[in-house]
Amino acid sequence: MSIKQIRLSNQAKDQLIRLKTKTGIQQWNILCRWAFCLSLNEPTPPTPIDIPADSNVEMTWHVFGGERHELYLALLKQRCLRDRVDISPESLSRQFRLHLHRGIGYLATPNRIKSISDLVVMGKNST
């Protein structure tokens, strides 16, 4: 396993707090899964920026992925191969953080998500 712990940035934490209020979804990991998959669905790779791990929100990879943690890792590896990114443990960890934070940013776009039904509609439209 290449990704063990995930710590979010303060900006992502604040965005997730607002999303929790709007959607009623109280678990960080569920919102993070939505965000990660939303980013993976984008045709372009995430911008390679430095993302601080400066919040107190932290979860293990198994908490993030739940029973399907292996599927999420396979999706990440496949995306890295598609983007011609190395799949070393360090690279996978970096790409995961980039995708996760990009997806959280997309979900937190003003007026994009007003309720949980907006998440469902977004999920249907992205397939």
Tell me the name of the CATH class.
Answer: Mainly Alpha
**Total count of helical runs of at least 4 residues:** 6
Number of strands: 2
Q: What is the terminal separation in angstroms?
A: 28 Å
Proper CATH architecture: Orthogonal Bundle
Order of helices and strands: EHHEHHHH
**Portion in beta strands:** under 5%
If you had to describe this structure to a student in words, what would you say it looks like?
- The chain is mainly alpha-helical.
- It has one domain (5-125): Arc Repressor Mutant.
- Helix content is 60%, strand content 5%.
- The protein has 6 helices and 2 strands.
- It has helices at 10-23, 28-41, 61-65, 69-82, 89-107, 116-125; strands at residues 5-7, 58-60.
- The protein has a two-stranded antiparallel ribbon with strand order 1-2.
- Helix 2 (28-41) crosses helix 5 (89-107).
- The model has no long low-confidence stretch (mean pLDDT 91).
